[in-house]
User: Which sequence fits this backbone?
């Protein structure tokens, strides 16, 4: 099972805040019995750290400095449980990766489409750049969001794990029954053909004595979306084979308050990183920076856009 135990938490902290590779972070974290021991580690103890087999883990002075820095940084908070600390860390990583990605946006990476510019009446450098910066940033965030949500889902319980059989996750209950779940990020992410296909897969799972579901990370059953309407129409016993929004989080965690604590941790982590800013402020700064780059290269106003289009058509 995956689970979020103390060793996994320590390894995540060493990766996210210390810059260690996954392999090395796991080797180091495995030598601590619990989080408290890690938070109180000394330089002398790190000089003699060994693997489970007794082999010494070679740590440079820089490695030891980074471990001590992570240990004493306050990133692992004693007022949070292991799961909340882990969620804060993967959220921190997600946010900072988005900020870093947005800061790297340049004119060369945008490659604005001249047909979109003409057909949508994007006449000035600001309009053209703003449209394309937002499109690129949002596309990147949506792509990364899938991996981030997967981390959050896997943090719900030690009975939940990722699988490679086509399903997203599986939860094994006390009776050893496996509950396979295909997770969709929102309430309108499936069409008729997809739903019909997953109905068959759920049927196949049930013939094995296990259970299958379609789950959505948010939404409510009475939402009038195309997907939910199709699910009600096409899926027999729809209520028993779907986990919608809060139902999914409660089913995986076995805790009716899990989602509320999750959302609070996401909020606290975002505030600690961005304060009063939001990701939109980062995108607007990118728009200003790339617009200046565009004008310096092609000129301002409608002539600037025309000059740009002439260079690619």
Assistant:
């Amino acid at each position: 099972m995956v689970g979020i135990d103390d060793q996994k938490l320590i390894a995540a902290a060493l990766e996210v805040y210390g810059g260690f590779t996954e392999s090395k972070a796991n080797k180091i974290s495995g030598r601590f019995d619990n989080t408290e021991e890690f938070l109180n580690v000394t330089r002398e103890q790190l000089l003699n750290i060994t693997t489970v087999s007794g082999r010494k883990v070679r740590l440079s002075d820089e490695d030891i400095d980074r471990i001590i820095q992570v240990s004493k940084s306050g990133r692992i908070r004693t007022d949070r449980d292991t799961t909340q600390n882990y969620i804060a860390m993967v959220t921190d990583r997600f946010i900072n990766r988005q900020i870093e990605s947005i800061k790297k946006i340049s004119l060369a990476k945008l490659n604005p489409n001249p047909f979109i510019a003409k057909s949508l009446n994007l006449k000035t450098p600001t309009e053209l750049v703003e449209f394309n910066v937002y499109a690129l940033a949002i596309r990147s965030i949506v792509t990364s969001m899938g991996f981030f949500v997967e981390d959050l889902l896997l943090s719900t319980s030690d009975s939940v794990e990722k699988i490679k059989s086509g399903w997203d996750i599986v939860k094994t209950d006390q009776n050893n029954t496996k509950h396979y779940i295909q997770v969709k990020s929102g309430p309108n992410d499936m069409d008729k053909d997809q739903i019909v296909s997953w109905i068959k897969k759920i049927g196949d799972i049930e013939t094995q004595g296990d259970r299958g579901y379609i789950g959505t990370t948010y939404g409510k059953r009475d939402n009038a979306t195309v997907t939910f309407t199709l699910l009600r129409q096409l899926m027999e016993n729809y209520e028993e084979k779907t986990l919608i929004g809060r139902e999914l989080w409660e089913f995986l965690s076995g805790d009716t308050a899990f989602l509320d604590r999750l959302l609070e941790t996401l909020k606290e982590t975002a505030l600690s990183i961005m304060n009063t800013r939001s990701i939109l402020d980062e995108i607007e700064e990118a728009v200003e920076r790339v617009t200046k780059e565009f004008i310096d290269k092609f000129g301002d106003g409608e002539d600037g856009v025309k000059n740009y289009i002439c260079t690619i058509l």
The chain has a mean pLDDT of 93.
